[in-house]
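Following up on my earlier thread - several people asked me to post the actual chain instead of describing it. Fair enough. Here it is, all 293 residues.
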Amino acid sequence: MSTTETASARFSGIEDWSPAELVDGIVEGQFAAIAAVKAASASIAEAIERSAERLEQGGRLIYVGAGTSGRIATQDAAELPPTFNWPYERAVPVMAGGETALTHAAEGAEDDGPAAREALAGLGLSANDVVIAVAASGRTPFAIAALEMARETGALAIGIFCNPGAAMVPISDIPILLHTGPELIAGSTRMKAGTAQKAALNCLSTGVMVRLGYVYSGLMVEMRATNIKLHHRAILMVARLTGASEAEAEKAFAASGDSIKLATVMLAKGLDRSGAEALVAAAGGNLRRAMQG
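Reply from S.P.:
Thanks for posting it. Predicted structure:
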């Protein structure tokens, strides 16, 4: 069975390939990575559904990984607050070797299972939490320890890995195999495996946010308008959702305290800010429910 560590005979002479051939080979690997995510769609869908159930009860998304896998997982955690206004304290990255390892390799840190347990203990892990451990090999001690602790505390344990029969399988409530096979450069899992992990996390976290009502009509209605570009995007969203002009949308957006949801409800329902706040609160913060109310 081929793994991420297998040296493929097909790539044994890549040092003699032309730049164009190298690009073709690498791009081919990226397509294969996406195919591996597609093959795991049923498992990812289950992870979305079961994660949303925990998070509705106030749980957190806790991302765990080492090396490339940890950096990819940390990126997914970091992007949830600005994209969906998801609380920073509920998107928690746990990187082997700490923050320094995000930019400086700390290869030995992946073997420190006790450090993972200590980090999760410090977070006060609970049954409402979702622990997503990412490891291309599926046997990284840091990730293994995190999954074991998640199971012990009743948190949902999701393992994302790229090798069949990985050690993460029996200790994951939901094992997600992304079978990417040999890399163009054997063992360089920042390539096919990394792309597959990123795509799988995109599916998982975005799917969860949609299920929780953080997206409406395909728009990021929870987005924070923290710069000029995003401020303009927010106004366009309000205009699109309500049929108002940009000028009307901008006025409502300002009156709402820069809230896409409140501005949309204000215009759509003919309410002032306090009225819109009451309606959105009654809908549990879900814009779709508020608009249907």
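The chain has two domains: 9-211, 228-292. That should answer part of your original question.
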